[in-house]
Amino acid sequence: MGRVILGAILGVALAPVALWAWFSFGCPPVAVADKPLPMESLLNSALHVRVGREAAKAKTALKPDEETLLAGARIYRDQCAACHGFHGKPSPFSAHMYPAAPALWEKAAKGDAIGVSDNPPAEIFWKVNNGIRLTGMPSYHNVIPETQIWQVCLLLANANKPLPAEAVMIVRGEQPPAPAPAPDAPQEQPKP
Ligand code: HEC
Fold first, then answer.
1. DSSP one-letter code for 77
2. What is the CA(137)–ligand 1 centre distance, in A?
3. What is the pLDDT of residue 185?
4. How far apart are CA 151 and CA 140, in angstroms?
5. CATH: 1.10.10.10, 3.40.30.10, 2.40.128.50, 1.10.760.10. Which one for 64-105+113-171?
6. In this predicted model, what pLDDT tens digit does every residue of 26-49 receive, in sequence order?
7. Is the pTM of this model over 0.85?
8. 97 lines ligand 1 (CB under 6 A)
């Protein structure tokens, strides 16, 4: 009995030493190709609960009208496409990140959603505004104005609906036609 107790005490005392050694010898998974830790998926559940609790407070007066969706597409092209890719044109490095950046313009693995179109806009807003720690997902709070964050979130939430033609071109990674100059715009003078 005494030995069992001694063994238990030693076991408890040695656990921090073993943990210290595990870190000190560089054993935890730190490279993209390393195997995930057994408990890593628990972080996803924690994220889900936190987003669910806090997203309810996020609101916008913006409507997913043509102006909002087009503005959202331009923000997507400038801020997000490098990691999340365009429709039919995946980012060259997203699959080489851990975790990978999901393709937001392709059919989701489950159901009929395109990207995150089955998520409420407020949940998408939480993720874009706060970022997701220990992943490559940045926090856009203080990076772009809040209105722009909402514009891109409303676009993603409507990714499975008909979008303005120009927005469709942008999320396919195509160059939309240059706007025609206003009729009363000053003509450029030829340089002498
Ligand atoms: C530097 C790379 C990078 C950039 C830039 C980036 N993201 Fe992400 N994003 C990620 C990664 C990686 C994840 C996966 C996080 C995870 O698995 O938890 C992610 C996750 C997300 C998710 C959650 C997806 C899901 O399935 O729940 C959304 C929504 C999202 N990003 C939107 C955006 C938007 C909008 C922008 C631009 C304003 C953006 N991201 C810019 C890397 C990036």
1. I
2. 5
3. 65
4. 13
5. 1.10.760.10
6. 999 999 999 988 888 888 899 999
7. yes
8. yes
